[in-house]
Design brief:
The complex is a heterodimer of chains A (137) and B (176).
Chain A: H1 8-24, E1 27-40, E2 43-53, E3 62-69, H2 76-82, H3 84-94, E4 96-105, E5 108-126, E6 130-136
Antiparallel strand pairs in A: 1-2, 1-5, 3-6, 4-5, 5-6
Chain B: H1 2-32, H2 39-43, H3 53-57, E1 77-86, H4 94-118, E2 121-129, E3 132-146, E4 150-157, E5 160-169
Antiparallel strand pairs in B: 1-5, 2-3, 4-5
Amino acid sequence: MRSRDGNHSFTLSISAIIFLFNSLALHAGEYLISYNYSVKNAILYNEQLDISKSMQTCKGTLSNSIIFPGNDSNNLYEVIETNRENFIEFLHSIGLLVEHREETNNYQNNSITHLTLRTRCFKVDFNDTLVKISALK
Amino acid sequence: MKYSLVLLSLLATLASAEPANTQAPAEKTMDVVTPTPTTSTINVSCPTQECPKEHVTKKVDAPQIEEGDVLERDNSLLISVVGQGVAPMNTTSPAQAYALAKRAATADAYRLIAEKVKGVRVEGQDLIQNMMVKRSSVRTSVTAMVKNAAVVETTFKEGLCEVEMEITLSHSQFPQ
């Protein structure tokens, strides 16, 4: 007598493919990231890194990218917090807007420098072991 | 009588023709003169007669890029700066002091690169009253986008962090 699932082998192979696809890959997303800090008289103030999930699809081509170990995490905030220094160096390499003002009044010097990465879209791919963050240009 | 007149006229024509003949060679000599350099003009560049031939045939190497040079089409320009930063007084640990000082030094290095590449806007104002300087102020500012600057070396000593940073500029990065 034939079983109720006549296509047992076909169903099994499809589910295996879906399982494999989900385990290898993939959880991708687009995030908006901005970063800025100020240096006043050679002392750092107000360093701020903002990350939020993009509410709409970003347009552009992939440019610079960096890969971090994922540790089975799908949370970008955790990944960046773990690799904060490397990620900030990566943001520096993308390019920062430098605004510097210096004032000398009666021979007393005061300076302030703002470095800003304007809000930019990043595509993030989560694998089992790696997280790839790519800037969209 | 007729023959004497004819002779006289012939003599007169000959006399008038002689100076013309003497001028003609002078004009030729003027044409013959060519502006080829004489030995004396060659010796001007080497008056002592001791200049070796290497000096004449020596190939000029490509100009070395130094500070203040202009970025040319075929050459790239390496700019190196050293930024300085200090840690705030209220840090909780030496590691935090180092991290904050390094970030401040990085910002200073970025500022120096921006100043070198783009230039600085300077505004100065002096107020002089009763022949005395009452107030003197100098304001400088720069705004630029800096990409692909690389940190070469970082040193941290006695609360002062120094970051050496380099950036390579090429002509293609500045579309005309």
